Amino acid sequence: MKAIGIMSGTSLDGVDVVLCEINGVDEETQVKELAFKTFKFERKLKSKLEEILEEKKADLASICSINFELGEFFAECCLKLCQAYGINSTELAFIASHGQTIYHISENSDSSIKSTLQLGESALIAERCGCQVISNFRSRDMAVGGQGAPLVPYSEYILYKNKQKSYGFQNIGGIGNITIIPKNAQKEQVFAFDTGPGNMMINQVTKILYDTEYDNAGRFAAKGKLIKPLQEELMGHPYLKTEPPKSTGREMFGDDYTNRLLEKYFSHKKEDLVATFTWFTAYCIYYSYEQFIKEKTIIDELVVGGGGAHNLTLLTWIKKLLPTINVLTQEEIGMSSDSKEAVAFVILGNQTYHRRPSNLPSVTGARKNVILGQITYP
Fold first, then answer.
1. Could you tell me the residue range of the domain that residue 92 belongs to?
2. Rg for the chain, CA atoms, rounded
3. Where does the chain bind ATP (predicted)?
4. 346 and 309, same structural domain?
5. Measured on CA atoms in the order 139, 287, 325, 253, is the torsion positive or negative?
6. Binding site: which residues?
7. Are 94 and 128 found together in one domain?
8. What CA–CA distance (Å, rounded) separates 279 from 1?
9. Domain check: are 245 and 267 in the same one?
10. Whose CB among 18, 91, 164, 186 lies 3.0–4.6 Å from 342's, allowing a Cys bridge?
11. Is the domain of 166 the same as that of 307?
């Protein structure tokens, strides 16, 4: 059967939409990518999102409206991809939409309880596309004590479990997250967590200093030198020492935090600032391996995916910091770095469609396996 996966990440670089053929369930799942495209946010919609996410205009009316605006945009993206492939959206078994994360609270505090909010109204997608929509995947895991993230590791286990090698799968989107699949692993042996910032801080620095959305291929960073005091301040961030299971997001490594650091170190050369923030993403990956992974599993290969896989300077730093591990990109193992997470949600949606669980308690800290998501019928 055919299905679509939608992923809109924390970096706001666009909405990834993938059309797949998917059959089977659980460990018998077989998935084939048929078509993929990243749809850039319209300028007005992106500006609204940025204002809400940075809490500059997080009023109730704006949040209410953006939920429907995103739903319309997601539906439009799905319709365009179907049209390009030559099928009608009513032929789809389902659309699996992660939604746009507006806020994620991974732990209880004095003022808040563990919770999450992803927007992109599923009723609109179902109405416009004429098929089932599966959405709101994180909440069910949180209802049984999990952090609601990361969820992609289930798909990586299905696609890449191997009897001969231990793999690490490092996704570098807005946030970095790693999945560890020991050789010949059972589901219960898979573990994963967010390593820290991915492209989020690098993109913000590049936007402020160079007035461009991202550091293309890491060219700005390649010209720079590391700023030692900034390195030391970044290395002291408390998230690094937090034990897994753990997850993070814009709340911790967003524009406010990045801008404060930029103001403090603004006298340094632009390329040095970009270089140091790029190094920090790689350092978070290295630190995570040294502190939380190596004692459990020695990784044979680290496969890097997401937008960060296109940053050659970032890849160079990862290889330099982890010299004993073979570092590859998704493309080098025959898969796409860009479509990876959207494909993951096709797999998660397929589990829900068949009333099967797809969270991994060993990853999220949940008390039990549960069926993720909510279904909206057309």
1. 2-153+340-376
2. 20
3. 9-16
4. no
5. positive
6. 9-16
7. yes
8. 43
9. yes
10. 18
11. yes
176 and 323 in one domain? yes
Residues 263 and 347 in one domain: no
What residues does 304 pair with on adjacent strands? 170, 329
Count of structural domains within the chain? 2
pLDDT tens, N- to C-terminus, the chain (378 residues): 999 999 998 878 899 999 999 999 999 999 999 999 999 999 999 999 989 988 766 889 999 999 999 999 999 999 999 999 999 999 999 999 999 999 999 889 999 999 999 999 999 999 999 999 999 999 999 999 999 999 999 999 999 999 899 999 999 999 999 999 999 999 999 999 999 999 999 999 999 999 999 999 999 999 999 999 999 999 999 999 999 999 999 889 999 999 999 999 999 999 999 999 999 999 999 999 999 999 999 999 999 999 999 999 999 999 999 999 999 999 999 889 999 999 999 999 999 999 999 999 999 999 999 999 999 999
Q: How far is it, in rounded angstroms, from Cα 267 to Cα 327?
A: 35
Q: Which residues are annotated as a binding site for ATP?
A: 9-16
CATH number at residue 15: 3.30.420.40
pTM metric for this prediction = 0.92
